Amino acid sequence: MCLKLEELFGHRFVVDSRQVQPGDVFVAIKGQRVDGHDFVCDALAKGAFAVLVERDCGVENQVVVPNTVQFLGMLAKEIVSKFQPKIIGITGSNGKTTTKEIVWSVLSAERPTFKNEGNLNSEIGLPLSIINTYRGEEILVLEMAQRVVGDIKYLCDLFPPDIGVLLNVGSAHVGVAGSPEQIFRGKWQIVEGSKEALVNFDDERMRCRKCKYFGTKGGDYVLVDRKFKDGSTLLTFRMDGEDYYYKLPGYWTKASTLSVLVAFGVVDMLDIFFNPTNLFSFKPLKGRFNVHKLLGGYLIDDSYNASYESFKMGIEELLENFPHPIYAVVGAMKELGEYSKAYHEKLSRLLEEVDGVIVCDAEEESKDIDSRNIIYRSPSHEEILEFLRKHVIKENFCGTIYFKASRAVQLEKIVDKLLEEVSANDA
Question: Key word ATP-binding present in the record (predicted)?
Fold first, then answer.
């Protein structure tokens, strides 16, 4: 039995058959490695209300469409168009998710505001998030991701931003996108596809007539000063020649501070009051420069992902604000393709600014990390843990240990184990 499209409304849509719950709509997507159509029967056996497919699978409760990914996009677009919300689109090579969370926190203190969940930011994930959780809020804050040129344009065509935010353009995924120039061209599509744009003044490539600017060197919204004092971060922003002062609890990195500055700019462009109240309880997302006390020093978990540019920001933060000796536990940067060796060699020179480097050789690319200050390397998480226990984390430790690599390296397993041990010892 074939269902009508309107019968699907009100049900949760899922693209992974393992996540199907009774009443869900399973969307079969043909990927490079796996074809969702092979799992249609599994989804129905788990209680799926219907399956969305591109071909007749010979089952009941199927809806056949020409392209399931495009159908998700058009359905989400139709849902959004009914409410005519203001749309904030955010992209960049680094910091998209954190910026989305901070912009949402500020806006939601004053207006009903929607954000796409987690990192559901692709041509599949973003429509899914809207279909399943958007309830007509008057502002949408949408994180938009790019793997290849054209991804941002596709998302902007579906959900045209009133304000497009371009944070930065770096080397992340250069092996997939093709070249640094193509990455920039693809990211710039958010500017081209938006009514207005807010972009990084510090990057001289980002200039256009409809752009407003945030940054540290100039622009419409400027980070003038950032100080960490008595457990709080003191911020000074400048707009229209006037300075604005804010005090946020806890330690805020330069990168997260710039995300607050973006929120400051967005609310001004929307003519909404900048209300930082929700930021008083804001916690950095896991693996994004989480600062933990470790004996007399610090453990910093920046293990969520890595590019050369995010490494550079992290190490600058360490050198400026954290105690020596500084040890960096690092691993490979993935998806760099033909540029991998050059970027890992560049990273090696950067790492020589810290006191010691421990390399996790879990991925092949890490062989090109050859800093002169490497004190240990191993493909084993357990061996690295044992080295840290014996040679770094001693009773009189008062320095800093920094963890960073691409997600495939799974450095968070070492971080979590160390934090468990410290917590158990404190108890």
Answer: yes
